[in-house]
């Protein structure tokens, strides 16, 4: 029964995050939501989709960083600060 409750809880979390993502306009918040979604889902296609959206936003927000690797390093540093 614990596994079913975990799945139900996880589905509610994903549903809530998807709802917030639809209305949220700030890229910085969208990055956090997309990251949470990619970690919360076990569907690899959805994880890939969320990660591609993260990369697109990072390229738009941090165009001077260049490569995707540099963007993620910069993003991780900004999250720590």
User: What's the overall geometry?
Assistant: globular
Radius of gyration: 14 Å
The sequence of SSEs as H and E is: HHHH
| Fraction of residues in helix | over 70%
Strand % is under 5%
Distance between the termini: 41 Å
**Tally of contiguous helical segments:** 4
Summarize the main sheet.
none
Q: Poorly predicted ranges (pLDDT <50, ≥5 residues)?
A: 1-5
Round the mean pLDDT to the nearest integer and report it. 77
Secondary structure class reads mainly alpha
SS elements, strand count: 0
Topology readout:
Elements: H1 2-23, H2 27-40, H3 44-61, H4 68-80
Helix pairs in contact: 1-2, 2-3
Walk me through this protein's architecture.
The structure is a single chain. By secondary structure, the chain is mostly helical. Helices cover 83% and strands 0% of the residues. The protein has helices at 2-23, 27-40, 44-61, 68-80. The longest helix is centred in the N-terminal third of the chain and has 22 residues, at 2-23. The protein is globular.
Keywords:
single chain, 4 helices, mainly alpha, 81 residues
In short:
With 81 residues, this protein is mainly α.
């Amino acid at each position: 029964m614990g596994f079913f409750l975990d799945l139900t809880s996880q589905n509610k979390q994903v549903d809530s995050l998807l709802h917030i993502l639809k209305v949220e306009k700030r890229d910085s918040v969208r990055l956090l939501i997309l990251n949470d979604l990619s970690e919360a889902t076990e569907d690899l296609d959805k994880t890939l989709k969320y990660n591609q959206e993260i990369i697109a936003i990072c390229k738009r927000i941090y165009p001077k960083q260049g490569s995707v690797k540099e963007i993620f390093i910069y993003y991780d540093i900004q999250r720590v600060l």
